[in-house]
Amino acid sequence: CDEVVAKQTPLLGICLGMQMLADSSEEDGHHEGLGLVPGKVLRLPVATGLRIPHVGWNDVVIHQNDPLFVRTEGRNHFYFDHSFYFDCPAQFRAADVDFGRPITAAVRRDNVLGVQFHPEKSQQTGLRLLRGFFMAAGAPAC
After folding, report:
1. Residue 2: its pLDDT value, please?
2. How far apart are CA 32 and CA 34, in angstroms?
3. Beta-carbon-side half-sphere exposure of residue 128 (alpha carbons within 13 Å)
């Protein structure tokens, strides 16, 4: 955490990695998180017609003009597989997904980013998202 905070090193948490960025989690008891993004991880709410775990392809709604999504070219369809979600203040929510109601799909706090979905399983859109992260982090264009 010191490297990320003190030196502003870019960090991207994916799925459980995003959830670890929170202050705490209720998954399998109460656990402290890294506290890099304010909020807590909660069990997905039960809703009629929705299955838990939330598995499959969904569109995300982007709330911030974020470098993470610059290269996705408006194609924001990603693969999800989770039973918990990151409940955080609106100013840290970069994107949402509809699961009976909007839930956090992506977070950002300065150099710390997280996505609930799996870009590595989201085909070309996922690759574009990862390239956007690497470019924002200062990696050479590929």
Report:
1. 74
2. 7
3. 14
Six-digit token pair at 13? 């948490």
Reading the block at residue 109, the tokens are 């706090």
Residues 6+ apart with CB under 8 A from 79: 56, 57, 117, 118, 121, 122, 126
Residue 39 DSSP one-character state: -
pTM of the shown model: 0.90
Give tens-digit pLDDT for 43-99.
Answer: 998 877 889 999 999 999 988 677 778 777 777 899 999 999 999 999 999 999 999
Which residues form the catalytic set? 15, 118, 120
How is the beta sheet containing 93-98 ordered, strand by strand?
11-14, 112-115, 102-109, 93-98, 54-62, 77-82
Dihedral of alpha carbons 129, 130, 133, 135, sign: negative
Cα–Cα distance for residue pair 14/44, rounded to 1 Å: 17
Contact 116, 86 (CB under 8 A): yes
